[in-house]
């Protein structure tokens, strides 16, 4: 019975191919937008998790702000933190700057950080070769480079590796380590891949106005970010005198990113919903035209014993079939769209498990909702009038 | 047996009423072939709609095989039409997207007959009307006479009590018309079904064993051999 109804509906839709295809278009776009929205949401969630996986979520970034620009921590104050506050596991103060480095005629501009040995532990970086800056390096002209920077400075004949010489300003630094490639983290003001590291004492040699204005800090695993933030404000605030201390936690950042993502998802969702409604109206329009054209057929069916319910089922089946076809095409288009989005933004593509069933469900619902009125209209036709129609 | 007793049908037009049929009575026995003649505006179509259970009279009684068919509601009317009435139309009214046997099987499908059985019976009926070779053809590939044969097969396949034919030969040339009339006569004998042919062609009417004339909503029996 169902099979026959569907087969008949399909034959009727195929008989007016062009019109069916036009009605399909709206549904396809609507379903595609909904699917793309769900999938992009999943991709973004996955990307957030991926970005924080490397550094973890128990990270805080500290920044001192003076009245005229970056502030200045006392190195000793920061390095004493793990002893004084039990919730702080490790802390890595750093000086941030930027400039160019030269190697065998290759010049590259990058971020430059003055760091202590703790930086490697806090950021969980791994070395491709050599070692990281140690606290004993002090005024030695040693530098560590990120993987991307190393590549930029390499020439085909002279790759940057441990032992290479880098000219920075008036000094030549020896590369003592190359960092493994790392994902940029939203918690870090610089992309580690594209950064040159030196010891804090060396910073004066390569930067004009260095200030120890930032630190990255790892809490103990069970610590509460807000409580630690408050402790830090109480503890460090007085020592900073008239400077302001700002603390950013990974969780805070994730929450911010998620609310931003939610807005984006909502927007796409609204576009999808509007397109689906327009598609639904298109289906309704096509069904009404089709019913007007097939009045006599309806009359004949009623005359030979079709019940109003049979007529309703026939036209409802056509509307639902139309929107299901549109929905299926929309699922493919939406997934392709999400894939394109992932490709363009360089994010990892993941398939959302809810996208396809939800898209299919929504398009069936649209078909039933917008097909119902025309189908009921058709079933209420007076057979006498319908038979007289030309 | 079909009984129409004192049937009246009026339509409200503005403030007044227009009486299309007045005190019309007609009894037709099973196995009879009756022609109903009448010019335009005689109430022919209204009478046909009432007999075909598509319309209800404003007064009077209508029984088929003793069953009062005027009490039925919309859904029940559909079932009664399906079981009791077979329609044949002037312009055939085959469904263009269904092939010949599916067109014929349609009344059985609406009755819930399984497809395999409906197909068997539809093909048997097509063989009976002389279209054994055309069961898979689409209506567009059939001639006018063949289409009307398919329509007759569709009207008969559900074994109705009444075949109601509205100008069944109106769209056909004389030779084919004659063949269709001969088919009606043969089927009437074979199935004992009661056939009403509504026509304005005296040649067609002359072949029916009984002829009635409708004029101004009143039915009069024409003398035999007219």
TrEMBL record, chain A:
Occurrences of domain MacB-like periplasmic core (ranges): 20-234
Main subcellular location: membrane
Domain ABC3 transporter permease C-terminal: start-end pairs: 271-383
Compartments, record wording: Cell membrane
Keywords: Cell membrane, Membrane, Transmembrane, Transmembrane helix
Family that this chain belongs to: Belongs to the ABC-4 integral membrane protein family.
Name of the protein described by the UniProt record: FtsX-like permease family protein
Organism: Falsiroseomonas frigidaquae
Automatic annotation (TrEMBL), chain B:
Keywords from the named record: ATP-binding, Nucleotide-binding, Transport
Domain ABC transporter span(s) in chain numbering: 2-225
Pfam families linked to this entry: ABC_tran
One Gene Ontology MF term: ATP binding
Protein name as catalogued: ABC transporter ATP-binding protein
Coiled-coil spans in chain: none
Gene3D superfamilies (UniProt xref): P-loop containing nucleotide triphosphate hydrolases
The keyword Cell membrane belongs to this UniProt entry's keyword annotation: no
Record PROSITE patterns: ABC_TRANSPORTER_1 (PS00211), ABC_TRANSPORTER_2 (PS50893)
SUPFAM superfamilies with a match to the protein in the record: P-loop containing nucleoside triphosphate hydrolases
Keyword Cytoplasm: no
């Amino acid at each position: 019975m169902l099979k026959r109804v569907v087969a008949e509906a399909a034959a009727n839709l195929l008989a007016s191919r062009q019109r069916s295809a036009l009605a399909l278009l709206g549904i396809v776009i609507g379903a595609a937008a909904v699917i793309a929205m769900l999938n992009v949401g999943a991709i973004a969630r996955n990307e957030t998790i991926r970005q924080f996986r490397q550094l973890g979520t128990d990270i805080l970034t500290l920044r001192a702000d003076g009245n005229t620009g970056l502030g200045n921590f006392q190195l000793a104050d920061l390095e004493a933190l793990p002893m004084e506050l039990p919730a702080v596991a490790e802390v890595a103060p750093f000086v941030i700057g930027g400039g160019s480095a030269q190697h065998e005629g290759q010049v590259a501009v990058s971020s430059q950080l003055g760091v202590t040995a703790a930086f490697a532990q806090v950021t969980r970086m791994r070395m491709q070769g050599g070692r990281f800056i140690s606290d004993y390096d002090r005024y030695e002209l040693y530098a560590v480079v990120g993987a991307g920077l190393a590549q930029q400075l390499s020439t085909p004949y002279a790759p940057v590796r441990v032992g290479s010489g880098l000219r920075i300003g008036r000094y030549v630094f020896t590369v003592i380590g190359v960092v493994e490639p790392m994902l940029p983290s939203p918690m870090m003001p610089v992309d580690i891949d594209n950064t040159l590291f030196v010891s804090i004492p060396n910073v004066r040699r390569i930067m004009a106005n260095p200030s120890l204005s930032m630190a990255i800090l790892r809490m103990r695993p069970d610590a509460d970010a807000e409580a630690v933030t408050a402790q830090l404000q109480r503890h460090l605030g007085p020592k900073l005198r008239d400077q302001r201390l700002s603390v950013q936690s990974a969780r805070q950042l994730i929450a911010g990113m998620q609310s931003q993502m939610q807005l984006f998802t909502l927007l796409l969702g609204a576009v999808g919903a509007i397109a689906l409604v327009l598609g639904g109206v298109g289906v309704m329009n096509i069904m009404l035209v089709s019913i007007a054209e097939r009045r006599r057929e309806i009359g004949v069916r009623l005359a030979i014993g079709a019940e109003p319910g049979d007529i309703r089922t026939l036209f409802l089946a056509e509307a639902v079939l139309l929107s299901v076809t549109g929905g299926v095409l929309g699922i493919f288009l939406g997934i392709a769209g999400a894939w394109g989005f992932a490709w363009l933004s360089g994010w990892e593509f993941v398939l959302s498990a809810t996208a396809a069933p939800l898209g299919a469900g929504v398009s069936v619902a649209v078909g039933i909702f917008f097909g119902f009125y025309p189908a009921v209209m058709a079933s209420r036709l007076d057979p006498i009038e319908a038979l007289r129609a030309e | 047996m079909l009984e129409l007793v004192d049937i009246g049908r009026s339509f409200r037009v503005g403030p007044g009423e227009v009486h299309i049929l007045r005190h019309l009575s007609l009894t037709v026995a099973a196995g009879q072939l009756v022609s109903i003649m009448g010019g335009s505006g005689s109430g022919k179509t209204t009478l046909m709609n009432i007999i075909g259970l598509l319309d209800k009279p404003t007064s009077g009684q209508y029984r088929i095989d003793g069953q009062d068919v005027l009490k039925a509601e919309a859904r029940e009317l559909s079932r009664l039409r399906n079981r009791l009435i077979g329609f044949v139309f002037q312009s055939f009214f085959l469904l263009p997207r269904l092939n010949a046997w599916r067109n014929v099987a349609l009344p059985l499908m609406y009755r819930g007959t399984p497809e395999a059985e409906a197909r068997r019976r539809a093909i048997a009926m097509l063989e009976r009307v002389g279209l054994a070779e055309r069961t898979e053809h689409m209506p567009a590939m059939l001639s006018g006479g063949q289409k009307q044969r398919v329509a007759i097969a569709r009207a008969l396949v559900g074994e109705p009590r009444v075949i109601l034919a509205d100008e069944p030969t109106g769209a056909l040339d004389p030779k084919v018309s004659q063949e269709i009339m001969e088919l009606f006569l043969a089927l009437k004998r074979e199935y004992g079904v009661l056939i009403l042919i509504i026509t304005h062609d005296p040649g067609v009417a002359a072949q029916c064993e009984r002829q009635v004339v409708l004029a101004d909503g009143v039915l009069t029996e024409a003398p035999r051999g007219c």
